[in-house]
Design a protein that fits this description.
The protein is mainly beta. The chain has one helix and eight strands, in the order E-E-E-E-H-E-E-E-E.
Length: about 140
Amino acid sequence: MTQASTIKFGAFLVELGNGATPEVFAAPCGLNSRSFNRTAATNDTNVPDCDDPDAPSWLERDTVSLSAAIAGAGVVADEDFDVWNSWFESGATKNVRIRLKNRVWIGPYKCTKLNVTGQRGSRVTFDVSLDSDGETVLQ
């Protein structure tokens, strides 16, 4: 049996662009979990069986759009929290780079959710959601 090669958490990064030319990307500190989700919106067409119109038919699907989302959660790192907060409050689009070992995706994103949570006796945490604002491409 051959064991699968796995990827450590540190090889999965969410890096924010600074908008400069050339653009510089950096991973803000504090995220303890990250996700990169891609979805396809489809239109369904019910295609009947021509030989037996009363038989259950099959759906055929056409992809009409693609979307990507990034989510993360972790501790509020005081040195980087203002990066998240300023972005959220600006409503601006930023380029984001997602690294998964030697794979790299880049695309424009909006910061659509920024939630800060605190509990007595614990450190302050946050979670953030980023939604694509255009094409995210594998480099």
